[in-house]
């Protein structure tokens, strides 16, 4: 697989993981270090354990069910051992507390670093935007 194909696979697996909260897959996608960061409307998460505990399980899994994340217009820029991915996203889900539908859209930037184990996420920043 080319670098671009490997990176696209990481993005696709990330999208699946937001939907099903598969912890093993999530672990395989990230640099599991304190240097990993994640910025979202719900806050800033510093360090891999915080990203997993406080965002994936604390925000997504705790508040939304039947999550379906979709990405479009994926752009990948590879610069040696660093890659930047930018795309528009849309998520459809249901609020756990009320069962009400939840739909939001935004733009996301992912930064990946190439390691001996392949491309790994090291930073994500996403924002909600009106399309």
Architecture overview:
By secondary structure, the chain is α+β, with helices and mostly antiparallel strands. The protein has one domain (3-128): Nuclear Transport Factor 2, Chain: A (Roll), CATH 3.10.450.50. The chain is 31% helix and 49% strand. The protein has 3 helices and 6 strands, in the order ααββαββββ. The chain has helices at residues 3-20, 23-29, 48-63, and strands at residues 37-40, 43-46, 64-79, 82-95, 101-115, 118-128. The protein has a 6-stranded mixed sheet. Helix 1 (3-20) packs antiparallel against helix 2. The longest helix is centred in the N-terminal third of the chain and has 18 residues, at 3-20. The chain is globular and about 45 Å long. The mean pLDDT is 95.
Cα-based radius of gyration, to the nearest Å: 14 Å
Distance between the termini: 33 Å
Q: What's the count of strands?
A: 6
Q: What's the tally of helices?
A: 3
- Approximately how much helix is present in the residues? 25-40%
Shape: globular
Could you list the spans in which at least 5 consecutive residues all have pLDDT below 50? Answer: none
Number of discrete domains: 1
Structural class estimated from helices and strands: alpha+beta
- The largest beta-sheet arranges its strands as 2-1-6-5-4-3
| CATH T-level fold name | Nuclear Transport Factor 2, Chain: A
> What is the CATH architecture descriptor?
Roll
Give, in order, the helices and strands.
Answer: HHEEHEEEE
Tell me the layout of helices and strands.
Layout: H1 3-20, H2 23-29, E1 37-40, E2 43-46, H3 48-63, E3 64-79, E4 82-95, E5 101-115, E6 118-128
Parallel strand pairs: 1-6
Antiparallel strand pairs: 1-2, 3-4, 4-5, 5-6
